[in-house]
Amino acid sequence: MIRRLAISKEHFDVELDVRCSPESKNAFVDVLARQASTGWLEKLLEQTARIEISGSAWWPLVAQHETAETDAIVMAAVKKSGLLAAPRVLWSELDVKLTLYDVDDARVGCISIDDDLIEVGIAATGMVRDEITLDADLKLAFKTLFQAHPPTTTAILANLPLPHTAWKPNEASRWSLLPEWTVSAFLRWASYHLRLHVLFSASSGLDDNCFGSTIGVFVERAIMEHVKSSRGTAARKITMQLHDSVGCICKNHRACGDAAHTKSRIVLHFCGCCHDINGSCPFHPKDDVESAVCTHGLRMLVQCVHAGDSEVPIVTTCVDVPLKTPFARCFAAACVELTETERTEADAKQIAAHVATEFNQAIDNDTKERESIDINLMDSMVESMLRSGELFYGLPQGKKGGQQMLRRKRKHSGNIAVPAWMKACMFTHSHLFQTRD
């Protein structure tokens, strides 16, 4: 699974060790032995029982718009930067070092390539020898060895630090950090059910052929806060601060002019009170009971924050949508239970399993409901509509009442009606549009 929370930079400056198979090791040693004209090399090869290949585990860090050049499927976000990391999927002869071990797993030497020479380090003496020329046979043997044992994404991701569980700075704190699995589950659901990735794609730049790119969405940190609502009732707010690689997302909902982009975020608001012994919320007793936590008023806002002329930032809300599905309510309740009550590891796993069950059910329901829809085609059409800036989804112009639907903005209206194929996309994508002219 892709890691959605940003990870510290030092974890991407590491090497991966891959053990060579006995067959590959023997084939390489046989070719190298034919080059041996000195006793030190013969002795070293006699001691060698196994070989490990070491090389950089990650490609050099890149910006979001450069990810297409790495041709990587899996990316990871670098904490406190706008950069992304991609696991290596191949090495060249200049990228790797061979480490030689004896039958007792003691290191006896190492081999690397420097220009047209092979450098051999001898552990017993600490000397580095470079008398061996890299001829065609030896170069092929070296290349065959590391190509037979390439770095794998699974092995590289396994070396990343384990995701944190929910963490609270102290008992009296009004906020807690959410665990990574909650972030991943919500972003996957928001992409599948709410088609949220279309908003991010529509904000990306176009290349020379007018093609956009699919932006990877990562989170710098995710926080659950216990806040006070305007009515004085208890309330919870989940804030997922998006990683800087996502960049500005309000391009097609612009309210900030040319002010500098500060951050983007996904915010969830809801009551979050625990139900009393009678199974009801003290503030919303008439709400349907779906868990031990009240999720009244649950809604999601996707916001872009820009620096204003004064100290007050300019906040553009791109999406503001109520979340009434069982999964959304289950997710919100789970976040409260994970962060505001003392939970054992077994309890946390049980909560995660319950959310996973609701997630799978939600995906199944969406799949069945949309089986007659080409949802990917709709994604592309809606992306184009958002980029045009000509449309909004709301009430008739100048009216305070009426039916909400897809409409053209006054400056783009003319005598052109909104086509039926555009309106057909609103069943799944209406919440991605501006709600007023």
Which key phrases capture this entry?
alpha+beta, 437 residues, single chain, 6-stranded antiparallel sheet
Strand content: 15-25%
Helix/strand order: EHHEEHEEEEEEHHEHHEEEEEHHHEEHHH
The oligomeric state of the chains shown is single chain
- Catalogue the unreliable spans: none
3D shape: elongated
Q: Indicate the mean pLDDT.
A: 88
How many structural domains does the protein architecture include? 3
Continuous helix count: 13
Number of strands: 17
Strand order of the largest sheet: 1-2-6-7-8-9
Estimated structural class? alpha+beta
Mind summarizing the main beta sheet?
Answer: 6 strands, antiparallel
Integer-rounded radius of gyration: 28 Å
Q: What's the end-to-end separation, in Å? A: 40 Å
Helix content: 25-40%
